[in-house]
Amino acid sequence: MAQAPVFLEHPSSMNHHTGEHPEQPARITAITRELDLRGWLGYERVLSGRVARETLTAVHPEGYVAAIERLAERGGAQLDPDTVVSSGSFDAAMHSAGGAVGLVDLLLDGAAPTGISVHRPPGHHAERAEAMGFCLFNNIAVAARHAVGARGLERVLVFDWDVHHGNGTNDIFHASRDVLFVSIHQSPLYPGTGPASDVGEGEGKGYTVNLPVPAGADDLVYRSLVDHVVVPLARAYGAQLLLISAGYDAHRDDPLADCRVSEAGFAAMTASLCRAGKALGAPVGAVLEGGYALQALAQSVAETMVALDAPVPAAEPDAVEVAPVARAAAHRLAEWWPALAAA
Question: Which domains does the chain have, with CATH numbers?
């Protein structure tokens, strides 16, 4: 296996023009500037390719993909009050999905030990045939479906810590067992989905895990949910690949929400996922979602990258205290995941 972790990127991310909007090209500039200062932390920079059309249409219908393409060719459009297509948006979105898929391939091929895909537009709000919440294509859902459909995995964990519920990913895998979707998100908050009672449907019942938290939830709340719910779920599930929907708008400085997570909190959650991945023999990678306080975003991405590539200690660190919200979640989910009853 190659020694260098990977940072997937593409200049087309700068051509997705959104005007006066929190989801702006300056997000990418802030991240790359911070990483320049840190010498790129030993990561290899990799230009992402465009996602293959058939890989994208395994999640999004061809008619929807073609409609976004036509809008870009015509100069763009305002899809809803939050979501914009510009002339460069289709190409940017194709590379954004391509970066997530490329990351999965590098991890599964053993060509990189870990990595992060940093592109615009983000993806986790995009539904099968509807753009929303700044998102055009659901990058992490496309990558997870690729891991299952093209790469033959049977158990992929997608953990979404963006402060907004990843409604698109939730719904795309709502009836699936081959992708376990777990989300920590502030509630109430846009888009108003993701109640604890939403656990999936049909064969996928129990494989959608929503962990809503109130405004003000901080590092200890998030870390407790990760250590006492998300990690035990990953182990009980036997995940073969762990993907983080890495939004940074739960940061205490972010203007779009009210949680209180710090850079250290994101790093600690990443470290916990990496320990779980090592125990399972499963690679761990991250895909950028939200985060709109530029300096906080940049520093949080950098700290996530440090944690992704840090040696996993032989001994488990001291356990984080079980927060009430984690205890309640473990009790609730024990119906499908008896291993959580110990929490």
Answer: 6-342 (3.40.800.20)
Contact 143, 289 (CB under 8 A): no
- Could you confirm whether 125 is annotated as catalytic? yes
Q: Which of 95, 119, 124, 125 is catalytic?
A: 125
In tens digits, the chain (343 residues) has pLDDT values of 458 999 999 999 999 999 999 999 999 999 999 999 999 999 999 999 999 999 999 999 999 999 999 999 999 999 999 999 999 999 999 999 999 999 999 999 999 999 999 999 999 999 999 999 999 999 999 999 999 999 999 999 999 999 999 999 999 999 999 999 999 999 999 999 999 999 999 999 999 999 999 999 999 999 999 999 999 999 999 999 999 999 999 999 999 999 999 999 999 999 999 999 999 999 999 999 999 999 999 999 999 999 999 998 766 777 799 999 999 999 999 999 999 987 6
